[in-house]
Design a protein that fits this description.
The complex is a heterodimer of chains A (about 200) and B (about 300). Chain A is built from nine helices and no strands. Chain A has helices at about 5-15, 25-30, 35-65, 75-95, 100-105, 110, 115-130, 130-160, 170-185. By secondary structure, chain B is mainly alpha-helical. The chains are: A mainly alpha (about 200), B mainly alpha (about 300).
């Protein structure tokens, strides 16, 4: 696959098929930790990290375990197994070896173990038939798309706090309405064609 | 055909079970290999500390303070929220002598509120900062005083601040001295004062007496009477404002009784009757302990 193909995959994962705003995957952390900018950035970075690693390892598991043994229909189960153990392992590894990164990612790392965006990227890699490199690129750029969306949304929510709106919309309802508007704005990218 | 399907199921169970077992084994081994030694004392300290994460100790949160005590031997009397009780518990946990908690509380250095004349009626956002940005630094004639809109009240995590008679008031029993209120006060009139300090001059105005007399019925005129009556030389006039040096003040309360404006408060001080009762009780106790050994001799 040429370099243009990889760029095309990355751009489509970030903008055109944004995991949150177009595919509606990983909504819970998107709404849960987007109240403040710094927590949103921390969560976004952790998601990039985990989605990249998960893409790598689930591809390996699919290619060397599930396909040879004709167990493709068990992929959801196998992927959850891989992702959960992988995140646990990475957390232990980071705590020992790179404490600075461990502290930066903090509580978000274990939180995203069961994030549907992470499982989603693994399943999509398989259904789209990506090779190893493409899978990792798709995973990392999917994470970047998550970061972009959650940072945009966090900055909107910080402003919403100080704007006037009806009492009934206070808090969560207005957040849902504004996320819907943000998602509609991202629909505008669907016409984007790359090469 | 039927047999084959059964075999498929068994095969899937075996493979996935084996995969899970391998992953579990790897995790178990790596939890040994990557085990991080944590000081159990810092975990114990964390359970002792109040867990308010107010930052009053100067560290960002209780966990970091606990770590700083156990690892780097940080001073154990920095937790304002916990007070002396926490200091004693930390001391017993660390196996060192307890020291006196240097408890400070926030004090709003303004007695104005409804005593201060308003320039105009403020109807904007209910927030001190936005009010203070308006013309003439806020709706009060006095440019130093409390605006009474309660920005400090929302900043206080301990519910120690209330707005009384148009100005903020700190309940020193609830206050932990974290000074979050001072951070948000646009007038910067909330200051840390020792919990034991009773005599307080609650005014921040540096206006001359003639000016101040017209705009506030209680503020410090800078007349200097308190400075003259103070037996320990603790009060000095700095730029038209009487200021107490806590290290010299003996909490006698003479300044409070002489202040022509009734501004100086000695609310925490015991009254004269109480002092006399206390002294009598002490004398009685001293006489009791002194009496038994002297009785047999006589």
């Amino acid at each position: 696959m040429s370099i243009t193909g990889l760029i095309s995959i990355a751009l489509s994962a970030i903008l055109i098929e944004n995991f949150i705003l177009v595919k509606f995957l990983g909504i819970c952390p998107f709404l849960g930790v987007s109240k403040k900018m710094d927590t949103a950035v921390g969560m976004g970075l952790a998601v990039i990290f985990v989605m990249g690693l998960a893409s790598l390892f689930t591809w390996l598991v699919n290619h060397f375990l599930l396909v040879p043994l004709h167990l493709e229909y068990m992929q959801t189960l196998a992927y959850i197994l891989v992702i959960a153990s992988l995140v646990q392992f990475v957390e232990m590894f980071l705590q020992k070896s790179i404490p600075t990164l461990y502290r930066a990612l903090g509580i978000y790392l274990p939180l995203i173990t069961t994030n549907c965006a992470v499982l989603g990227v693994a399943v999509l890699n398989t259904t789209k038939g990506y090779n190893l490199l493409e899978s990792v690129v798709y995973g990392v750029s999917g994470g970047i798309g998550f970061l972009v969306a959650i940072v945009l949304f966090a900055s909107i929510r910080e402003r919403i706090q100080f704007s006037e709106h009806p009492k009934a919309f206070e808090g969560f309802p207005i957040a849902l309405v504004s996320s819907a508007l943000l998602a509609m704005a991202f629909m505008g990218f669907s016409g984007l064609k790359i090469w | 055909m039927f047999n084959l399907e059964i075999m498929d199921i068994v095969w899937a169970i075996v493979v996935l079970g084996a995969t899970g077992a391998v992953f579990g084994l790897v995790l178990a081994l790596s939890s040994r290999a990557f085990a991080v030694e944590t000081d159990e004392r810092s975990e114990k300290l964390l359970s002792i500390l109040p867990g308010a994460n107010c930052g009053g100790c100067g560290f960002t949160g209780c966990a970091l303070y606990a770590e700083a005590i156990s690892k780097n031997g940080a001073p154990i009397n920095k937790c304002a929220a916990g007070g002396q009780k926490t200091v004693n518990e930390i001391a017993s946990c660390m196996g060192i002598e307890p020291v006196k908690s240097d408890r400070v509380v926030a004090v709003v250095k303004c007695s104005g509120g409804n005593n201060a004349i308003k320039k105009y009626e403020y109807l904007g956002l209910h927030d001190c900062l936005s009010a203070s940005l308006l013309g003439g630094s806020g709706p009060n004639e006095c440019s130093y005083g409390c605006l009474g809109l309660g920005t400090c009240l929302t900043a206080c995590a301990f519910g120690a601040i209330s707005i009384v008679d148009g100005k903020a008031k700190v309940d020193s029993e609830k206050c932990t001295g974290c000074m979050q209120c001072a951070e948000v006060c646009p007038k910067k009139i909330i200051v840390p004062v020792s919990y034991d300090q009773d005599v307080i001059i609650a005014c921040s105005s540096h206006d001359r007496g003639a000016v101040l007399r017209k705009i506030c019925s209680i503020g410090c005129l800078g007349c200097g009477i308190c400075q003259k009556v103070c037996p320990s030389g603790a009060i000095t006039l700095i730029d038209n404002l009487a200021t107490i040096d806590e290290s010299k003040c003996v909490d006698c309360g003479k300044c409070a009784s002489k202040c022509p404006r009734g501004l100086i408060s000695d609310a925490g001080l015991p009254s004269r009757q109480e002092i006399e009762a206390m002294e009598a009780a002490q004398a009685a106790a001293a006489a009791n302990t002194a009496a038994p050994p002297s009785a047999p001799q006589a």
